[in-house]
## 1
Amino acid sequence: MSRKRWVVSKCDKDHAATIAENCGIEPFAAYLLCARGMTDEFEIESFLFDTDLIDPFTLPDMDKACERINLALDNGEKITVFGDYDADGVTSTALLYSFLSSFGGNVDYYIPDRTGEGYGMNCGAIDALKERGTDLIVTVDNGISAIEEIEYARSLGIDVVVTDHHKAGDVLPEAVAVVDPHRQDSCCEFNEWAGVGVTFKLISALDESEGYELLEKYADIIALGTIADIVSLKGENRILVRSGVAFINLAISNGTLRKGLKALLDESASTGPVDASSLAFRIGPRINAAGRMGSAERALKLLLTEDATEAKAIAEEISQANAARQETESAITEAAIRIIEENPQIKYKRVIVVSGEDWHQGVIGIVASRLVERYGKPCIVISENGDVAKGSGRSIDGFSLYDALTYCKDSLVQYGGHVLAAGLSVEKGKIEKFRNKINEYAAERERAVAELVIDCKLNPASINLDMISSVEQLAPFGADNPQPVFGLYNMEITALQPVGNGKHMRMTLQKNGYSLSAIMFSVSSESFPFCESDKVDLAVRLSVGEYMGKAKVNVQVKDIKFSALDDEAVIMSEKDYEDFSSGEELSDEVIERINVSRELCGDIYRFMRVNNKWHYSAEVLCYRLGLSAENIVNCRIALDVLTELGIINFNDGCYSLPSENVKNPIDNSRIFLRALNLKN
């Protein structure tokens, strides 16, 4: 995992106390809201208690969309809902199809195949819909960039109504209506809906209502699509998700839950109340897996079926697809990491662009997310299949992937997406040109650093169940409103215990005589670099668990670092190493900080002889050697020098000594001489 900058939020405690009193909320909840920048009482009350839905007719072209769809309903025209293969597209399709069917509409649906057709409308699909007798296409979660395809549909006598939530370009498609809150001429007070949210506004307009009665019928799938698409959980999205979570839990208790959702919850072994996290990590990935690994229509049928037996069968099939997705994702992630680690010209660029032959296009977006987590920088994963390769990218705050791809548009066949996630097509022979171009863009901007926001520092003695109750007032959690993360600083590790067959690490921590237990998931004892008696800082999340029939506080560790090492110095030193290794022109300040001595190389070699092998970070190595964080760059270069000379080996992320001692003068290292000559 890459090193993140820890940023502790600031809060005026006195102002928070005033807000708590005036708004009638728990003081700790008020503190958290203020720490997140909510200092206006009206804004806070709206965030916590608002139930007002936005007038759907404030969206551009909504009146035109309703007029054309109503005409089709009145005349019995064939309406096709043209969706997308991800969870947002599937729920959007299910929502509009169900609504139009309830009015007796002559309606069907079409979801393109991810591998064979790709995202959005295509002329082959339009030909097929013409043969099926379609008179009107209504897009959901796509269409804003389908300029040529919609023109082609018009030439065949098929009208198109676009509903989308992606960014609109300079030119809008020539459709009957283009309903997209991101249109430049949109005056809507909110524009962060997922595709299913825009679809909800459409059916509300068709229903000639604000949408409250529709939420009583469809809140479950609206919430699922909204959460799965990782859009902001502020504004109306918060209302939609809160309504959906309540709807689902009520339906579970009275036995009226949608058959498909019940089957998926059963398959995921979900117990207890459902929350936004349950939908995000248990249900959403399974819906997505159907489109990634096969046909998204199976997921759509699952949401539409009223037959419990059919629902169970499809849920099992989709869960198997999800398991296959996980295996495929892991294999491609490992392959991508191998390529990156073996190619410094890829690894040390500001934007990682990695490609492979026939990588499954359904999972490369997830692989990009895994690489971002590992390397802490924007990553684009490209599948080479034929003359035109397809890629998917993920980014970090501070670097707009969409803007970067726009800069590179002359090198691309097609692109689209958002600030933090985007897709693209590029000619196979131009991948290297694209890699250089996007890094040219990145080099002209300040280097973005992945951050971990700490909502507030905690005294471990203050952690209790009442605190967690206050935290829950901010739910539902998701994008733009994440579950709070708390900082525990200068904690001493007093005990370590591997749990879950060695897959997780439980630790006992102590400070000022107070002790607590915490768990860090997905970290084995071999990969855990900390020892008993180490003083560490921890970023944790708190939740309520149960032990021997009693409620207790669970402490989950999200990140951990040495208390003694300065955060900014660690990040600066890591940047220095990347600049040195990438061949970038170094500033005088960076050159001054690089000081790789013979003595340091000797110290590291002797340390290696004592420890036999080393598979932790240079940050940990610095700490164990008693060096300051500024020396991370020098430790990393020294490791490269010793590896270049064959004095130590480096394989699969692990440094080790060769079977026989190797004597090779340090002056034979090109890396050492380059570092030595920087100041000359």
## 2
Amino acid sequence: MNKISRKGFLKIAAAAAMSGVTAGALAACESASSAASSAVSSGAGSVAAGATYIPGTYEGTAQGISSTVKVTMTFSETAVTDVVVDTSGETASYGAAAADELRQQLLEAGSAEIDGVSGSTITSDAVMKAAQSCYAQAKGEAVVTSVQLPSGDENDWLGTEPDIDEAAITETWDTDIVIVGAGNGGMCAAAYAAQKGLNFRIIEQNSAVMETRHWYGTIDSSEAQKQGVPPVDRAELLSEISRSMGGRCDQRVVKTWIDESAAMHDFVAGILESAPYNYTCNLTLGDEAKWPDDTQISQTKLMFPVQQVDYSSAEKPRNVVFQEYIESLGYAVDFHTGLAKLEKDGDGRITGLIAQNTEDGHFIRINASQGVLLACGGYAGNPYMMEKLDPLGTSVTTACSYAPADKGYGIRAAIWAGAHLDAEAAPVLFDRGLVAPGVDSGYVESASSFGGKAFPGTVGQYNPGSQPFLKVNRHGERFMNESQEYDNASHASFQQPGHVYAMIHDANFREDVDRFHTIGCSALTRYIPGMMESQLEQYEAEGLIMKADTIEELADKMGFAGADKDTFIATVERYNELYDAQKDEDFGKPASRLSAIRTAPFYGCWLGASLLCSLQGISITPNCQAKDDRNEPIPGLYVTGDMSGSFFQNNYPCVMGGTACGRTLTFAIKAIKQMAGLE
């Protein structure tokens, strides 16, 4: 942690004023990295007549993948005479190994603009930033030592709250409510606050609103009533969610969503279905929303989907519509503005926050008289947090569903301010992480990724992976009832070699998929014409789908050998016997979900979990107020979205589609109502 001293700041303030030189850290509510620099020896003063530099040795630092990169440069009056590049804390085979080549490039370039080293992009960029600082100092330019906003590391995912000197805060905003994050929760909160004419600011570290999650779950919405859907047994639903969470959720928090999601939908629909948009609401209902009668899910009355609605066919995503809506009412999103730390008074009330402009690095104090709403997302893009907080989910994952940008900075800022993090991980895992034979689940080294790690799979959404075809482990053994929720196969693979499994089917897959009648997003395989066919062809060409004319040939292509091959062939024969009998005596899979494997060509692939997001968050009250370690509410601090807790524990119940996003939107509105005194 670095602190800008007031004395040091004032010493250079006159030179820096009006020159655009400011604290240059890149901060965010979901990621944080920055440059920090200072002179380490002679060089104070100005460039002599006829000279280019002030002779001396200067040091610059910048955040690399997993460490602070340091560059030390020695200057004569006209040239660089020596360079030392220290990347020893970076990934050994990538960033650390690039030090000599980067040093040579700096010596030859005569500037900080170098090509860098392929495969070590982040480290190369950090070296260039550090070198730029050295050049600035050697030219007598004012350099402000930056606050190093903590990115965490493998030994300390939380890090320490940054200490930001008052002199570094060059701007102040006064408002009633601050919303942090322009994603699903933040934009819904902003639209509601704008409709009510409230005094608020919404900040977002990036340059645009975040991707919209279209599908959201509601209970007894006006759309459901319009479609004639019978009312939900709310007590039964509450009990079922609690059962899915192992009793670890706060049922009062769950009830907030159950009781208030219908009003949330009315608000959303009131904007999206009105001029100038006039979008049509889609509601999953009837037979499409029903599991086959012989499935355990149907028999135990698990409800899917929970009246899931969406506007996915609309011209513009919901978050873009909300942005246009608030702008039409005279508000705007403050882009390029990231959370640095929360502020509180002597009584522990959150009074606002300090933000940082991510373009020029200057700090902004935002005073919020009525409260702060954090909607910054989870930590799926932060390997440090994933490995420490969700070791099981990490170990069974082969790919990410999308490119996760959320690094958990909002969660960490809340913890620094005294908030309590739920004790148990709750990842959203899809059984769709397609990988090549022989690839294990879990992180591998990646020089271009945050933390120097990434999951090995390149395909995060192989949708047919959610179909209940035969699944076997690396020894060719069947190990589960395949007709279960999305995350069950992934969790079950924790007990299997390599934490991966193979899925097998024959040429009659289209008939099987139609009979399986899976629902939720796995239904895409069923009702999008040619989707599975085209994916089979594409991924076969990429070596990720194996196709063969015989089971023996398929076994070879899948990597089974020796006794494992014999076991695999015997497992397929046994599975065909179970299909013929229309009774799964081994694992109890419903007859409607069994399939024969007799018609060539035969197909096989290897799968692990595909990580969508993390749902382990800050514990909250039924009013969406953050709680401290004593489970007492923290005045002035509210949370929604993937970074809010007290709801999902251990898993996301995928038989209740849209629940996570429905909760996000419902809690966003609830928090605004609470802060503004509208309830």
## 3
Amino acid sequence: MSPELKQDTLPENSAAVGSAKDVEDLMRKYDKESNTRIWEGTPAVVVRMVMVFFSLYCIWSTLFSVAALEKRLTAFLALMVIMGYLIYPASKHHVRHNYIPWYDFVIMVVGASCFLYYFFSYDSLVMVLTSFSRMNTLQVVIAIVGLLTLMELCRRCVGLPILFVAGALLLYTFFSEEGLKIGVKGIMYKLFYTTSGIMGKPVQVCAKYIVVFIIFGAFLERTGIAAFFINLANSLVGRFSGGPAKVAVISSALCGMVSGSSVGNTVTTGSVTIPMMKKTGYKGEFAGAVEAAASTGGQIMPPIMGAAAFLMAEYMNITYAEVAFRAILPAVLYFAGIFIAVHLEAKKLGLKGVSKDQLPVFGQLIKKIYLLLPLIVLVALVTTNTRTMQFSASIAILVTVVVSLFDKDNRITLNKILEALEAGGKSTITVAVACAMAGVITGCIVATGLASKLIGMVISLSNSVPFVSPKLVALFLTMICCIILGMGVPTTANYCIMASTCAPILITIGVPKIAAHFFVFYFGIVADITPPVALAAYAGSAIAKSNPMKTGVNATKLAIGAFVVPYIFCMNPAMLFLESTAVEVVTIVITSIVGIFGVAAAMNGFLFKKQNWLIRIMLCVGGLLMMDPTVITDLVGMCILLAAVLWQYFTAKRTPATA
């Protein structure tokens, strides 16, 4: 962001927006990930070097290490435990300058030692531990302590929802028929010493792919690409009615696509866009909601989609390019819904855009188009399968460093490189710990055969609801699970759990595999803006100085597309371009966009004038029908929408529009 634009667009009353301290205080209250120790001086340098070493190790390990998978993963987890306890205190009362209690050091050393024991003893263990019957008491104790250490770290940096799930499943496993048969020794063997528990697929994907992409995102942020996106959006739409809100939608979508963090992106871009929106005339609750909804949606925006797209490709056993292709239309509908909503809100309030003299000049911005080169290189390498995903990300990091040398305002320095490596390591902690817990959950489900029981329970419950499609009931139950589990849990971990538990249920009842995985992915993401624990909305409210709950409700209304579209592509997968021709694809795109217009207008309550309840129902029903990719529903929906729009138009001409 250019200093001139940022200064000009800040509110005249500085009390109208929250300071960085306000944001930090609110996020420490609600977000476990934000509740960190404060290091200064020499201790800060030591902690920083640990983070830098971890990031460098991860890049080296994923590219060049030929060690056994178990050795790479145990080293990864040992470093994760060390970093986690250095950064996250037991409670907010321990957040003091250069303070860590002695028992945290003990837990850190003992916990890391459990994984290092496996690392250094792997060659002998692999020969001895061919079955759990050969485990000795010490090895059982090491497994239990290692698991408990990770669970405590999960409580500190991720939160209780995922821990409750893991704890409940562990208890179930111990007292299940299979658990009683193999005992504590057998359970610990499966969860700690094999790759079907803590070191399961979630942690494997995290260590192999996700961490490198997180580091890439940290490097990219230091090139000033966020400011470039904001300035670009300003030059394109800033002058239109309610322009700052439209700028927030575009810039946050682009930044969120790279960062992969709803909360982090809300704070980063929201510090610029929310004051702009408030100065224009948007209410604080609406401004914070726009930023939160758009930042959250960045994770479903192709081609990058945070880092979760690579995880989805691994789980579904398809290419990354196919995941990105299937995600195009749902993402377009999501952001179209938000864009339409902010436009209608601007019309309702009579808001104007930013004056031309305060906006960046597009001709000047285009000179920095080279900042996009790392993204272009990454997408080109991955989609063409020229290199592996992790190698492509590493090349993109090098391209990022080279590109920044040409920008005198954000030229890379040694300190910036260290900052990026440190930020990448720190950002990996919560994702990796949550992935480890996801592995425990998956391991318990596999060990007890609970998956088949869950499928039977859901099918039975779905069939017991009269007059409602069993598939619809199963989808609704899955949605509730995703949102509850997603409260404060990183998107990648949420997806890992739901992909292992709920996605197979949906597939069993007839939902296509790709649609089922997209469904759980979408609802894991929108948990960040769904009350009562809507972390991205809370971050937006802290900047906007607005009511957190009202901001969350507004964000949910703005993101209505994310609550509707998944149901539609599960009931009719043509929206994901499955089993459809080119003509059908074009038709689906057009009718779906018209449909989301109807739904967004109904949620906003204003079109040409304030709507009565009948018009809102007509717009909502007509929009939903048009979003369903079938000819009959499209025709009926179009008729209803036209009737509602024409009625609004002609009555508005006779009566002046009012808010």
## 4
Amino acid sequence: MRKSLRLKLTFVLIVFVFSIILGSILINNIFLGDYYLYDKQKTLIATYTEINTAYTQYDQLIEEGTTDDYSSFGSSSVQSQISNALREIFGRIAENRSVSILLYRNIGYTIDGSQIVANIWPIYSSINSGTTSWTETNNMYSDYINASREAEIINRHSNYIIQRVYVSRLGSDYLYLAGTMDNGDGIMLRASFETIHDSVELSNRFILYISAIMLVAGIFVLLFITQRFTDPITKLSHIAGQMAELNFDTKYEGQSEDEIGELGNSINYLSENLEKTLGELKSANIQLRQELDEKTKIDEMRKEFLSNVSHELKTPIALIQGYAEGLQENINDDEESRQFYCDVIIDEANKMNNLVKKLLDLNRLEFGNNDIEMAHFNVVDVVRSYLANADILLRQKHVTLNFNTEPEVYVWADEYMVEEIFNNYLSNALNHVAGENRIDVDIEKRGDVVRITVFNTGEKIPEEDIPMIWDKFYKVDKARTREYGGSGVGLSIVKASMELLGQNYGVENRADGVAFWFELDAKNS
């Protein structure tokens, strides 16, 4: 089943976001309380440092004589001597850091029941806002004194101690920093320390609600975003599939300059190169197949040639050997018999000689070793001259010759090759003429070609044999062919010669015989 990359990517991103959310909740539960406590301590220590520095500067003013006593720090007479800047510093610190500030002096101790309680004189308090009522200030001090013995110590320093104190009067936890400043005056800082557990739960619920909303919205956003990424990949996958099916027409048309764009350009380049290489490979394959076919054909021709030559030469060689042995053994003493034996040997040797000559001519034609000498000549003269030389053969067979032609018909061809073609046609007609013993030779101009036809009366060629009569050593009637000494090579020479000349040739059965024809170029004649 096909799995969508888009859905996979969306799922992975959703799992990743969900993991972040769960990680955030887990971190909230484990570390937020400690961080909250650390932050509160840091605030108290920073406040202590800043107040101590500012108060030390005020102490220097006293030493310089600006005021000689700060035992009545809360009174109006003393307040007038305090720098307004110092009050603003303390007030801003208390407000910005949500810290209650109490500066005091120990002025003695009183016995309250069974407890000894220290008495203090407030020097400055951010709680009373400058009023003369120190009730709340004393409450801040009393709350710490009453609960500090059982309070948890968070941090201890040479000048101060930080404790987590539960104030029963207020029903809440506070962090107290209690200590002394550089000049020996006391300092007490208090910061609210609400339970962090409720805050963590509230924070976790808020994160879950927001995360759920964002997750739902994020799914649609992710689907849209991943579609923008996966669409080009899908197109590239389709193009690759088309390339696998050897279809190189589809191209990537993206315009992006990122990695996907580079991949698309690379696939286009690969497609073009594959198409080009495949074309070259097909051409090379066709050429190789043709060469293999040609080699196979040549091998078959060689085997057939050797077989046919062996067959054709076997009979005359056997006859020559037999009659020669007869002469050697003086089988017949009379002169007439010896002469007959010699005539047979000479006749068979001539047949072998003619066969070898024809095979050499055919080999030269088939393998392109024959140089064609094109000439413009009167083909009527060539045919008439050859018929005159063959007159004795025509009269020996009592053949009636009809030569039908115009006085002059000029053609472009190799004169020797044309004579050889006509010789094979006429020899074939003489060997097969029968019935009326008539041979008709026609030279007819047909537009840009001249057709030369040699017809003989006699038996027709079976239709199934007509395509094969041009093959080497093929004989329709082997017994009769042997009778007149035919080799089955003459028509193969005609075929090879006509293919070199690039003209048409053929044979057709007529009502009373067979007609062989060939055509020659007669342009501009």
